Amino acid sequence: SKPIVAIVGRPNVGKSTFFNKIAGKRISIVEDTPGVTRDRIYAEAEWIGNTFTLIDTGGIEPFTKDIILHQMRAQAEIAIETADVIVFMVDGREGITAADYEVANMLRKANRPTLVVVNKIEGKSLENNAFEFYNLGLGEPITISAQQALGLGDLLDEIVALF
Ligand code: GDP
Ligand code: MG
């Protein structure tokens, strides 16, 4: 079956914006509960002959209203269990947060191919913001602007190289 790429990261880092830029055909996955679909979070995607399933873990609704950190842990666990490649998205304008470190620790221990993607980098003057994300201990940060579709081709090259 197709490789699975899961997007993980804090609320508002740009996961949905990225998902919508990359998503081709949406896949409706019908849950056991009648009427419940998760078609907003699964999509089929393709990059130079490589097809894969993309999951926006931010769209997975928690069963209870929980604090952000608990939600992120749950989303990261789902990604670790199901994904072949994890896109760990961070906000290049806000910098590293405690929740980012927490998720980074989980992903490091899981030892699953993971790319640190620094979003909201529009223009050269913001490129330097990416360096601090080396501190997450997950390798070289990749800069993109999901909104302006900058760096997406290079990122997709790196994703499919990990399949
Ligand atoms: P999510 O909560 O991680 O899914 O984040 P969203 O995709 O909903 O985006 C959160 C906010 O960040 C929205 O206001 C977006 O317009 C904005 N945003 C997303 N991507 C970018 C980007 O590349 N650059 C900038 N400047 N803003 C972005
Ligand atoms: Mg979202």
TrEMBL record:
GO terms for molecular function: GTP binding; hydrolase activity; ribosome binding. Residues 3-163 form the EngA-type G domain. One of its GO terms (biological process) is ribosome biogenesis. Keywords: GTP-binding, Hydrolase, Nucleotide-binding, Repeat, Ribosome biogenesis. GTP 1 binds at residues 9-16, 56-60, 119-122. Associates with the 50S ribosomal subunit. Belongs to the TRAFAC class TrmE-Era-EngA-EngB-Septin-like GTPase superfamily. EngA (Der) GTPase family. GTPase that plays an essential role in the late steps of ribosome biogenesis. This is GTPase Der. It comes from Irregularibacter muris. The lineage of its organism: Bacteria, Bacillati, Bacillota, Clostridia, Eubacteriales. The gene is der. The chain holds residues 2 to 164 of 438 of the full protein.
